[in-house]
Design brief:
Elements: H1 2-11, E1 25-30, E2 34-37, E3 46-51, E4 62-69, E5 73-74, E6 78-80, E7 86-89, E8 91-92, E9 98-106, E10 115-122, E11 128-133, E12 137-140, E13 149-154, E14 165-170, E15 176-178, E16 181-183, E17 189-195, E18 201-209, E19 212-224, H2 226-238
Parallel strand pairs: 2-10, 12-19
Antiparallel strand pairs: 1-3, 3-7, 4-6, 4-9, 5-8, 9-10, 11-13, 13-17, 14-16, 14-18, 15-17, 18-19
């Protein structure tokens, strides 16, 4: 009995205090609120930390990752915490330009779970032009059409692209455009007014992206002679 008592007193026989630590909390460590172009990977990984009740990192914990909002993808569906309690994942943006991309990192029964990460996916470079308004109008020769020509500049996925320079040029029938170059707004739309040439009949205008040879659209209009006759009558009356 004395030997057993001494063992318990001096050496703590049967003490399991050095066993595995119990995970208590999961929290965000790094990688939140990043911005990337649609279709690209974020520059930094998403990182969470799993800790015990004393705030020390716990290794060997499996963290599940999932896309909550947006059309992006992840490099894996789960990852395991390292010696510091850190687990990470790579996140690729989807094809939709949005501020609403969200990822969840989950470990069941841990405080703080799930952890949410958000990211913004911005449009790619403008690749296409689409006519939005002002096509097929009829107006008096020599006068400005009532509705400006308007186009939508979009990237390869159809996302509107703001801040893009769009060129305009009067073609068949002469006349002019104003301005010759305009910039798309937040909605990806740019406009220009068309003043018809002096001849009656069909007249055309082209809109184009200066750096994309295939991004060209054509607007048509019909010029009538009604206004020129009215101007001649008014001119005679004034004399």
């Amino acid at each position: 009995m004395a030997v057993v008592f001494a063992c318990l007193t001096l050496f703590g026989c049967g003490d399991d205090s050095t066993g595995p630590e119990t995970a208590a909390t999961i929290s965000l460590s790094a990688g939140n609120d990043q911005v990337a172009t649609v279709g690209d990977w974020l520059a930094q990984p998403l990182v969470v930390v799993v800790t015990n009740s004393d705030g020390r990192g716990v290794s060997g914990v499996t963290v599940s990752w999932s896309v909550v909002d947006g059309t992006g993808s992840l490099s894996a569906s789960s990852s395991e915490t390292d010696a510091d309690g850190l687990a990470s994942i790579e996140w690729r943006m989807g094809t939709e330009a949005t501020t609403g991309n969200t990822i969840a990192a989950t470990v069941d029964d841990l405080s703080g779970s799930p952890v949410s990460f958000t990211a913004t996916s911005r449009p790619d470079a403008a690749a296409t032009l689409t006519k939005i308004g002002g096509d097929g109008q009829t107006g008096p020769a020599g006068l400005t059409l009532p509705i400006p020509h308007s186009v939508l500049a979009a990237d390869q996925y159809g996302n509107p692209v703001p801040g893009v320079t769009v060129g305009w040029s009067a073609q068949v029938g002469g006349g002019s455009v104003a301005p010759d170059f305009s910039t798309t707004g937040a909605d990806g739309i740019a406009t220009s007014e068309r003043t018809l040439g002096p001849s009656t009949g069909l007249q055309s205008t082209t809109s184009f992206l200066p750096d994309v040879s295939t991004a060209v659209v054509t607007f048509m209009a019909t010029a009538t002679g009604v206004a020129s006759s009215a101007f001649r009558v008014a001119d005679v009356q004034q004399r």
